[in-house]
Input
Amino acid sequence: MLRHWANTLSTMTIFNSRTVPLIDQRGATLPNPDASLAPKAHLTTQGLLLDTHARPLRDLRISVTDRCNFRCNYCMPKQVFDNNYSYLPHADLLSFEEITRIAKVFVAHGVQKIRLTGGEPLLRKNIERLIEQLSTLRTPTGYPVDLTLTTNGSLLGRKARDLKAAGLRRVTVSLDGLNDEVFRSMNDVDFPVAQVLAGIAAAQTAGLGQSSGEAGSTGLKINMVVKRGTNDHEILPMARHFKGSGVVLRFIEYMDVGATNGWRMNEVLPSSEVIARIRAEMPLVPLQASKPGETAQRWGYANAQGEHDKRAGEIGVISSVTQAFCGDCNRARLSTEGKLYLCLFASQGYDLRSLIRSNTTDTELISAIGHIWQGRVDRYSELRSAMGPDTGTGARRIEMSYIGG
Ligand code: SAM
Ligand code: SF4
Ligand code: SF4
Output
């Protein structure tokens, strides 16, 4: 199994005269806790698990494939993810039954929202079957899990109806610009923007844009990663296009995830500047967070009285670089091959697959996951902010395409 991890250990890749050392982190594993131990008595009044910073476990992101049909340069740069790159072999992937078994334990521990991601999740064969299984999960109080998926939208036109029929509630589509030339160059596989826009329309028609009932939780969301000098001139056209459409557009600061995208601080456009640019043309009012742990700061389009015009809708900004939000981070991430990561910027994960493939009972699995979350200390963004904007914590990080967004 180490074969496919070892092959990039000493490779170096050149980005516009920058040399990026590649160290494949997929093999790095933390020892699993002793599954026979009962979780520590460290529960909230609702019986939920808390980590060492008193953060509950609410959100599970599951990566279902490490493959993608796009090569966005901020995520899977072509120079690294080329024909020689070793993706995980099928036998290493968690099966749908294994994913569902693990997800069930997380839901019992307080997870209310599950997001399928990747790689490109719609490339995983029969993904609808997994959605069917996950949609049967119920929280301890009997509610269905808020089941959603992040996609590049390329296959949505074909699949939206089946996804909805399988039990998917909502989707988030990544779209980095409306201009076809800009979009083709950012996905780096010459994929036309019209096909993603058609996918978004198909998702709306299929009912994947329904609200989950919470304030501000409009179903269909669009994520735009903003890279200064690459697509920041698309901010206003995107805002104009989606204003009043029922879709929430969210601008994400270009993050220093992984170790292959050659990230530089001078390519980050702070969210404050995104808001200032939109506000200069379309007045905005700040909105309350709809729930604790929400990643995006919400802004509503204002009417002539300076109040939120609900028909015009809202936008969001995700300021992972300039404004750390680790304080209430309630997210865990399960990689394609069953490693549990407690932070997007983690360098090591816990190998849950080895636990479930070694006849571990459900009680032992519950206990192991409980111990892992209770020992969680991660707060990478806050530490980076404390150290200065152009620094990392020094540890080698896992790729976004492997761990999921
Ligand atoms: N392929 C799917 C997609 O693009 O929506 C799902 C996986 S992708 C890794 C999940 C999200 O991560 C996408 O919205 C993508 O834009 C975002 N992302 C990837 N690399 C990023 C980076 N360096 N900075 C900020 N967001 C990033
Ligand atoms: Fe693929 Fe999504 Fe990464 Fe783009 S952001 S390369 S679509 S996984
Ligand atoms: Fe959560 Fe880690 Fe991001 Fe902080 S840096 S918000 S702990 S994922």
Observations:
- DSSP finds twelve helices and 15 strands in the chain.
- The mean pLDDT is 87.
- Residues 68, 74-75, 117-118, 120, 150-152, 174, 223, 225, 252, 254-255, 257, 261, 400-401, 404-405 surround S-adenosylmethionine (ligand 1) (CB under 6 Å).
- Residues 12-403 form a domain with the TIM Barrel fold (CATH 3.20.20.70).
